[in-house]
Amino acid sequence: MRKETIKKLCCPFDKSDLTLWTITEDEKDNVLEGILSCAACNRVYPIVSRIPIMSPDEYRDFKLEQPMLEKWEKFLNGKRGKEFKISDGKIKAIE
Asked: In terms of DSSP H, where are the helices of 7-90?
């Protein structure tokens, strides 16, 4: 996903701006994998294969997200859980 496009996205719950954390990008600076976070509601949305996953919580299948989160475990400070939220500027697992 192009960074210019990401700048146009907002949180689907409260329409707040999102912060991008890039994990991998291609040679043209397009985001391949990353995390979008909302400071207002503390939700976190992964970007997988250039596609942001911004479904409502009740429609997210965290079992499908688990392999990606395990891959990013170093970035996530080794924490895991069913839902991921932002706390004090770091991603924190909520059990």
From this structure: 62-71
Q: Who's near 6: CB < 8 A, 6+ residues apart?
A: 18, 20, 31, 36, 52
- Model-level pTM? 0.72
Do 81 and 93 form a contact (C-beta atoms < 8 A)?
yes
Tokens 């995390």, residue located: 35
With beta carbons less than 8 A apart as the criterion, state whether 43 and 11 touch: yes
Average pLDDT over residues 12-18: 91
Q: How confident is the model at residue 35 (pLDDT cuts 50, 70, 90)?
A: confident
